[in-house]
TrEMBL record:
This is Carbamoyl phosphate synthase small chain, chloroplastic. HAMAP family: CPSase_S_chain (MF_01209). The keyword Ligase applies. It comes from Phaseolus vulgaris (Kidney bean). Signal peptide: none annotated.
């Protein structure tokens, strides 16, 4: 790097003239010489230049700076209004095929750790944020967000106007976009990529589900346990269908005393019933419920035989299995601050939600009740069918990330299984009857 030396010679008169229009008459000329060294050359700038583009299918182009992985990726852009919990969002399998835009402007300040992950890896297509924290401050922090994404080959961009993009998504609905750091691709090429890709009708569940059955034993750690209710004394066996299940759903079930067997999304209903479970959970998952008719068929063959609980994708599959229809929402619900009214109690819960599809309650058969509604738009947020011992929620009662208002749903599922057990006992012949006469 080049260095230049600049010498300055100033007389005493020069100095005094700087401060006064009438310098002393008898000023003695003295010369002071000093050297200032400054650097010049082609050193790196202390800031990063824009090196990435987000091109949306509506033709808009958003210049940004990249972090995490490099390359070109296509996905559906959705916005998430959560203020915290970006690591749970990154590892939620329900975001497969999507770019998640965080409306909270400052992301990355707590870094990442290995306790808050909701699955074994990141499934989202990319992360879009306004401001990337250049430092981390949290006692559990293990590494920075940028390093974490780079290791998992997930693209991220920052220094982009997320408010403007959010307004566009609210106005026009979810849009397909392309993220790229590849200068060799023109804007027109990226635009054509966005227009030629679609998420509707695509089976995304098979790519996030486990491949073979396994037992789950981990409970919510004691320091994070927030339920004040007592755990039932009985142990109920629950078969959990993995359509993209989050770890904390399983932890909450285990904390409520359940023995859990996790099975793949394609696991036959007949094999599940052979296990003689006390209940079946149909989990959350990504994409279009109409794109997985095999899952709907499985749900149909289990309903009415054992108590069932559906969460998010599981809720939508139950709606279809009962004969109802689902539809794609304009921009969906994504965030940890959605108000929901429980129509059975009148209470309002603040809920964590992540879905782009909803059940149309007008298409459901007689006997199925809407138990919860989203107060932002009135959409169906919960169902119950007492005759079939069925319950479902269109949001995340495990609160990861989000508030704990809806944790009671796991207890209600326990009660469903307990009622079935009591009915079974009542239907069995009594010992005294068997030995009378």
């Amino acid at each position: 790097m080049a260095t230049k030396a600049l010498s300055f010679a100033l007389s005493f008169n020069d100095l005094t003239n700087c401060f006064s229009s009438n310098p002393p008459r008898a000023a003695v000329a003295k010369v002071s010489v000093f050297t200032v060294r400054c650097s010049s050359g082609s050193g790196e700038r202390p800031w990063k230049n824009s090196d990435a583009r987000l091109v949306l299918e509506d033709g808009s182009i958003w210049r940004a700076k990249s972090f995490g992985a490099s390359g070109t990726q296509v996905g559906e852009v959705v916005f998430n209004t959560s203020l915290t919990g970006y690591q749970e969002i990154l590892t939620d399998p329900s975001y497969a095929g999507q770019f998640v835009l965080m409306t909270n402007p400052h992301i990355g300040n707590t870094g990442v750790n290995f306790d808050d992950e909701e699955s074994m890896r990141c499934f989202l297509a990319g992360l879009v944020i306004r401001s990337l924290s250049i430092s981390t401050s949290n006692w559990r922090c293990a590494k920075s967000l940028g390093d974490y994404l780079a290791e998992r080959n997930i693209m991220g961009i920052y220094d982009v106007d997320t408010r403007a993009i959010t307004r566009r998504l609210r106005q026009d609905g979810s849009l397909i976009g392309v993220l790229s750091t590849d200068d060799s691709k023109t804007d027109e090429q990226l635009l054509q990529m966005s227009k030629s890709w679609d998420i509707v009708g695509v089976d995304l569940i098979s790519g996030v589900s486990c491949k073979s059955p396994h037992e789950w034993v981990d409970k919510t750690k004691q320091q994070w346990e927030f339920s004040s209710g007592k755990v039932p004394g009985e142990t109920f066996h629950v078969v959990a269908y993995d359509f993209g299940i989050k770890h904390n759903i399983l932890k909450r079930l285990a904390s409520y005393g359940c023995k859990i067997t996790v099975v793949p999304s394609t696991w036959p209903a007949s094999e599940t019933l052979k296990m003689k479970p006390d209940g079946v959970l149909f989990s959350n998952g990504p994409g279009d419920p109409s794109a997985v008719p095999y899952a709907v068929e499985t749900v149909k063959n289990i309903i009415g035989k054992v108590p069932v609980f559906g969460i998010c994708m599981g809720h939508q599959l139950l709606g279809q299995a009962l004969g109802g229809k689902t539809f794609k929402m304009k921009f969906g619900h994504h965030g940890g601050n959605h108000p929901v009214r429980n129509l059975q109690t009148g209470h309002v819960e603040i809920s964590a939600q992540n879905h782009n599809y909803a059940v149309d309650p007008a298409t459901l058969p007689e006997g199925v009740k809407v138990t919860h509604i989203n107060l932002n738009d009135g959409s169906c947020a919960g169902l119950a069918f007492p005759a079939q011992q069925l319950m479902s929620l269109q949001y995340h009662p495990e609160a990861s990330p989000g508030p704990h208002d809806s944790d009671y749903a796991f207890k209600e599922f326990i009660e469903l299984m307990k009622q079935r057990e009591n009915r079974t006992k009542e239907s069995l012949p009594q010992f005294s009857t068997l030995h009378s006469g």
